[in-house]
């Protein structure tokens, strides 16, 4: 299946679609947000992604224990409303940021967290949608997104197999098969040993979709490994400078680190290449270092070849070592000096070829 996000085609043979996640990394300064989009472009990202919600569209302002974070995250002790108030991207910025991204020729889309966010993004004609891990069970929201007929990238950080199946089925019931599932570990930051990247292949086989990674680990090892397992989308948080702070700072990459990620992913793609057994010119040249049959003692004309006068050694200018046992006992049709590569024309009775 081929999925088109703006002018970017995603399929089995395409390059990895690399998304820089802006999220909360703007410090409530639109100029920082714009500079982060610039940084994403300079670093080589294919897309910049926003998140579209307000504190009041995602939760309520309530301070009882239900709304306090206490799950071992970097945000423990805070209320949801307080966290989202700090993290959200003002809706009045969206048009300006999307327009700015277009001017820079970088794709811009977003994660909506309710129907009103979808409506806003539709009015701005975003080319795709992202569903966050924590919204994967909100089937009505997923159906509303799917009804827009655009590609849907779904993170699976807290999902069971059944949850994923319900989300994928919901999209397909609306006639939307443009689905990309991202392996994700919803802890912030997450541990490398919890990545379980082999799950990506199983998701591809199980649901017949394109696959990728939404990564919250520190560093870039996990995204690079994901390329070898078939990831066609990689999402990673980007921020201008860790000193800006904010809820996502600890697991975000700066511009230099993100550039290293992009370059490493592109190198990994080159290394994967294609199935190819042909010899390049360099490989042909290096065949000379392979083993072959050489005369290792002077041999007189008519003398038989033995394990003492011929050997399989480097370099590779003589006959293949595969013929060694067939040649033993045959005779030389001319005198051969030590250090001479053995050739067919040196041998009497070559019917073994």
Would you write up a description of this structure?
- The chain contains twelve helices and twelve strands.
- It is α/β, with parallel strands linked by helices and 353 residues long.
- The protein folds into two domains: 225 residues, TIM Barrel; 66 residues, Alpha-Beta Complex (Type Iii Antifreeze Protein Isoform Hplc 12), CATH 3.90.1210.10.
- Helix 6 links the parallel strand 6 and strand 7.
- The protein is elongated and about 100 Å long.
Key attributes of the depicted protein:
single chain; 353 residues; alpha/beta; TIM Barrel; Type Iii Antifreeze Protein Isoform Hplc 12; two-stranded antiparallel ribbon
Could you say what the CATH architecture of the largest domain is?
A: Alpha-Beta Barrel
Q: Which residues sit in consecutive blocks of at least 5 with pLDDT less than 50? A: none
Profile the largest sheet. 8 strands, parallel
Give the topology string: H per helix, E per strand. Answer: EEEHEHHHEHEHEHEHEHEHHEEH
Name of the CATH class of the largest domain: Alpha Beta
Averaged pLDDT: 94
Strand content: 15-25%
Q: Which strand order do you get reading across the main beta sheet?
A: 5-4-3-10-9-8-7-6
Q: How many runs of DSSP E, i.e. beta strands?
A: 12
Helix content: 25-40%
N-C termini distance? 49 Å
